[in-house]
User: What shape does this take?
Amino acid sequence: MDLSTQQQLDAYRKMSMIRAFEDRLHKENATGAIPGFIHLYAGEEAIAVGMCENLTRADKIASTHRGHGHCIAKGCDVRGMMLEIYGRKEGLCHGKGGSMHIADLAVGMLGANGIVGGGPPLAIGAALTSKYRKDGSVAVSFTGDGGSNHGFTLEALNMAVVLQLPMVFVFENNGMGEATGADFAIGSKDIASRAGSFGMPSATVDGTDFFDMYSASKEAVTRAREGGGPSVIEATAVRFYGHFEGDPGLYRTPDQLAELKETKDPLVHFRARTRDRISAEDLDAIDAENVALVDAAVAEAQEAALPDLSDVDADVYVSY
Ligand SMILES: Cc1ncc(C[n+]2csc(CCOP(=O)(O)OP(=O)(O)O)c2C)c(N)n1
Assistant: This one.
């Protein structure tokens, strides 16, 4: 393990922040205060953080409809995200994007994406730019098991190999696409093994284990950065909430969900893996700090101003 104790604490801080953010949004959404749909990432924290701890601000990521965790892992400002989700003027995208379109190019976050499978074609564009400019940056797409079946995802996999791009495709296999099981929708039952037929290496990891995800990501990112071309990582995990907030979730019983939460919690796994070097009190303190930060962000978002009507068509078209 090449991570110092401080780096491991930093990684936990991000995973814990994602959990605090999502748990609070679950409650806030139930009050009717949040416009639009939200899809929560709780349960999948180790995937985003395990990957992004290997990236710099210059590296780019493309996300999904379930994007809050990717944003936090890549360094988006949590206050700006909360304001954005509430549709406020001071949000990261001036309150016009909302949960599914949060982007922050300053930290290399190309955007959450309401188009399932939309991330891979976007990210290979960033990877091609990196190769053309020879700037040494890497691009990463996060895609669900459902999105892994989309035609443009498969086209992007092929193009990344043909052009030998500095790219990593992360497939987050949480076992479900809305209410459809991945075991039904994926013919081969195995996303990672598709990579071989496209001509690139792959790894399958336990996406509830930060250290497993970190190691596989490190190998793939290093390969991409050193000119070795693209890779696939399939990371398995569980989503702790419904597909979207409001989903009745009839496809799993309360007992099944309770068991999954008990056995597949990435934060609990982190605590178990670091017990010999990081105290539970230190991790509890991080959790409490994050809850307080999220409390403050929500309180501010509730009171913040909406965008001005006169700005309705600003930021819609790019001026060249
Ligand atoms: C192109 C496209 N097709 C369908 C949808 C509707 N849709 C939204 S989320 C979703 C399921 C996605 O499942 P998966 O990729 O496994 O991601 P997860 O929700 O499990 O994170 C679908 C079908 C969409 N938004 N875009």
Summary: Residues 64-66, 114-117, 144-147, 174, 176-178, 243 surround thiamine diphosphate (CB under 6 Å). Residues 5-304 form a domain with the Rossmann fold fold (CATH 3.40.50.970). The first helix runs from residue 5 to 30. The chain has one domain: 5-304.
